[in-house]
């Protein structure tokens, strides 16, 4: 969430900036009115609380002296009902303020280009040259279906649309890609491998910004009165490790990586992305999360993006880096790079990794802090997250870019040790 002092001091200016950069409509007048009401009632509530405490002490002294306390008790009873009403009213106003503030997206970094949608994204650079094929290119669905390796029909029987069953060597290649990515990030880039829960409580989702705005995109489960949610990314579990914590400065940056299934309803998806493994309700990622000092988060963002790029370069997959415009970024992000891998069947680049700096936006929601050694006081950390990378999409990219005329798929050299040395799958 944004700094409350900014919301209180400059509601109109903030509303204008959000409208211009994010296309978000903030009712500044309603916010200011609620804030004024909150201040008024909070002052009266504090007055009544102080009066209650004062009278309680007076009652104690009068009892000790054997004096008649009936008048004091009557006085306390007289303002007790008002105090209770003020406290209830204050709670209601705070709830209404929370409903507004928790729905406000993060402000873009100054380096982020303004724009309403992906057409305003800015290409940073490209790596690799797309392969020129001397035969008709097949997409990943055709390549997988030939051997029953990729089976959407059976998955639909088991679970419905947008699920996939993988078999045989293709399932092994999927696993191999995950192992390769984890070893690269832990061995080369200094991330600590972490195994996290796939089901989390609502507090965790509020912390990283999925709730309350994106509840319809989440799969949920209920046991008794307890509602929990299946994670849409292990960013949720990893980042919330520092919720309500004060991290010592010498532990920063705290870099974590996890391989996990992810669950997302993808309710708004349609068209070609529903074919095969491009966009599914269940998929797997190797996620990167960093908890950093504020003055180091910009450099950490570049380093995290570079870690994801190394995955694609080591696999020999052409890609491009895009700086997202203000209107195309995620809710919690202040700056985002997307990595888009080349897919021969579509003759275009498609997103395979999104790497974001959320500055203090998530940390403020989670009360995640670090102790600044210069002041000795706790301050908000900055949180960053990124895909390093999406395993299903990496599998698609390998299948299509490394396909052969006979339908076999050459295994990238970096992954062969995880495939028992196999050079091709056929």
Automatic annotation (TrEMBL):
Catalysed conversion reaction: tRNA(Ser) + L-serine + ATP = L-seryl-tRNA(Ser) + AMP + diphosphate + H(+); tRNA(Sec) + L-serine + ATP = L-seryl-tRNA(Sec) + AMP + diphosphate + H(+)
UniProt entry keywords in alphabetical sequence: Aminoacyl-tRNA synthetase, ATP-binding, Cytoplasm, Ligase, Nucleotide-binding, Protein biosynthesis
Record localization: Cytoplasm
One MF term in the entry's GO annotations: ATP binding
Coarse class of the protein's main subcellular location: cytoplasm
One Pfam family matching this protein: tRNA-synt_2b
Pathway(s): Aminoacyl-tRNA biosynthesis; selenocysteinyl-tRNA(Sec) biosynthesis; L-seryl-tRNA(Sec) from L-serine and tRNA(Sec): step 1/1
Binding site for ATP: 264-266, 351-354
Gene3D superfamilies assigned to the protein according to its UniProt record, in alphabetical order: Bira Bifunctional Protein, Domain 2, Serine-tRNA synthetase, tRNA binding domain
Binding site for L-serine: 233-235, 264, 287, 385, 387
UniProt cross-references to InterPro entries, sorted A to Z: aa-tRNA-synt_IIb, aa-tRNA-synth_II, aa-tRNA-synth_II/BPL/LPL, Ser-tRNA-ligase_type_1, Ser-tRNA-synth_1_N, SerRS_1_N_sf, SerRS_core, tRNA-bd_arm
Superkingdom of the organism of origin: Bacteria
Positions of the Aminoacyl-transfer RNA synthetases class-II family profile domain: 139-412
SUPFAM superfamilies per UniProt: Class II aaRS and biotin synthetases, tRNA-binding arm
One GO cellular component, as annotated: cytoplasm
GO biological processes: selenocysteine biosynthetic process; seryl-tRNA aminoacylation
Enzyme Commission (EC) number: 6.1.1.11
Domain notes from UniProt: Consists of two distinct domains, a catalytic core and a N-terminal extension that is involved in tRNA binding.
Role: Catalyzes the attachment of serine to tRNA(Ser). Is also able to aminoacylate tRNA(Sec) with serine, to form the misacylated tRNA L-seryl-tRNA(Sec), which will be further converted into selenocysteinyl-tRNA(Sec).
Family indicated by similarity: Belongs to the class-II aminoacyl-tRNA synthetase family. Type-1 seryl-tRNA synthetase subfamily.
Oligomer and partners: Homodimer. The tRNA molecule binds across the dimer.
Protein name: Serine--tRNA ligase
Organism: Marilutibacter penaei
